[in-house]
Amino acid sequence: MDRSIGTLVVVALVVLSGCTMIGGDTSTATPDATPTADGTATATETVASTPTPWSTATEEPTPTETPAATGTPTATPTPTATVEPTPVGDLDPVSELSSLPPGVEGGSVTNVTALAQANQRQLLTGGTDLTMTIENSSREGTGHLRIANDTESSLVHLTEAEGALGTSTDLSTYYDAEESGVYNRSSGEVIYGHGPTTSRFTARFVTGLVYVVPQAYASAPDWETAGSYTTDAGEERLVLQADSVREDAGDQSLGGDVSDDDEEIRSVEARMEVTADGLVRELSLAVELDPASGESYTQTVSYTVADLGAGALDRPDWLSDAPQLRASTTADDELLVVEHTGGPTIEAGTNLTVGGGFSSIGNVSADQPITEGDTLYVHATGESFDRTPHLSVNERPTLPENVTAFSGQIGLSGTQGNTQFEAAVEIASDATEAAALVRP
User: Fold this and answer.
1) Report field, pTM of the whole predicted structure over 0.85
2) What is the dihedral of CA 344, 348, 354, 357, to 10 degrees?
3) How many CB atoms are located within 10 Å of the residue 320 CB?
4) Assign residue 127 a region: left if phi > 0, alpha if psi is -120 to 50, beta otherwise?
5) Are β-strands 408-416 and 41-46 bridged in parallel, bridged antiparallel, or unpaired?
6) With 0-12 CB in 10 A as exposed, 13-18 as middle and 19+ as buried, what is 105?
7) Which residue from 53, 55, 76, 152 has the fewest beta carbons nearer than 10 Å?
8) β partners of residue 379
9) Secondary structure element (H or E) that encloses residue 409, with its range
């Protein structure tokens, strides 16, 4: 099993299994997920133009992989990565660099944690396209991960063949300033959201979670400087190498360590190239492990990071597999207006949930199909937990005297076939408006 990728698959699918209610936040800040001392991910928000994405012209993880919208995952096996010996003789001295990344002083690595954290900050700042492969010899389960961030949108693609769940997994998440979605290619399920929905919450959660993986492998080895060089494009890089892991690496890695408690590390060979500001451009790692029972095996890890221009990501086509809804409110927030702007028709009688913030006011349904161009009007009567929603299609209703205003997050969600669709809006309170006035 691919230890880190497998853990992500399990957690991501557990989160997805609970995506049934509108909720989440509307922030488009880059999710900052860093491992705590016990190896868990703590998500905070780093102010950035927007979220975190991945490929420039397509959302496929590699040029050789073309996922199909079927129940059969299409992850392309990647040959076992090999770590070439560091060509120390071909490198310039470390002193040739105009500046050194955090955690490196006087030509030596003095703080691996600071070095790994600098890499994390650079990834979360945006404008990066990261691809990563984790593979274990003699064991099933090759993991592929891609995260890209063009500072305006975010797309993650995570695959594992016969991994932690005993089945193949192929999962994508996306979000930008307004839209969000999750696509489980293994099951064919698509979740689409516009505004502050559970789709956005899930996409942001998974995105923040996967950032822990490169952090884990950047911080585990006991790095030493090997030299430096300047690329043809003029970028200075510090080259590091390692033949062991740090004694406290278990406190920094997802799942505890690069090895399990019953495994002995027999050998380590690692190489990393880092820019002056701390961004890890390339990392390769091979760890030979000897378990208490069974045959020895080698875990190989490789990842590269390329630059990604602002707005370079395309909106993935699979988002359009679900009905596209847009929500707003009028009449002093007493009327929720939901427009069908494209995608499949919502069948007559489809159960639609009115609610927000992971809570429900109630359900409504239309006695006619809802197609592109149709508008749904929803209002509620009653108070507190005893409220009743009412639906009108393409005809703005006259609101009764006992109508009650919506507050907080409010929207409409439904499920049809393999798609879940959501649209919500955040109604500003006096407190949030006051906070907005003083926010720098």
Assistant:
1) no
2) -30
3) 15
4) left
5) unpaired
6) exposed
7) 76
8) 390
9) strand 408-416
